[in-house]
Amino acid sequence: MKKIINTPNAPAPIGPYNQAVLAGNTLYISGQIPIDPKTGNLIEGDIQKETKQSMENLKAILEEAGMTFEHVIKASIFVKDMNQFAKINEVYGTYFDAETAPARETVEVANLPKFVNVEISMIAML
Description:
Blueprint: E1 2-5, E2 20-23, E3 26-32, H1 47-64, E4 72-79, H2 85-93, E5 103-108, E6 118-125
Helix pairs in contact: 1-2
């Protein structure tokens, strides 16, 4: 059985999907882009600010599901420019303890929704 997870503290979906789905004890979080949920505006022009907003959106969804970043077992980062990797990684790393950080891949892509520079999705378990 699945449970839909949505919170007003993260951006509303921009298509036919939900912010997250809890299946059993596993939470699948849709990719989050740097949209400020309070204003609906994109955060642009600074990859570190964009990454932070994406991570804060993920944090809000995790909290809605009763979880934290400690529950994350897998992350996927999609970037438009791999040359930004170090800056993205610097911000991303502040959300995890290096010794218990989740598995992850980082992939450079041609484009992302709303033409943002970064999108991050996660899988977490209770």
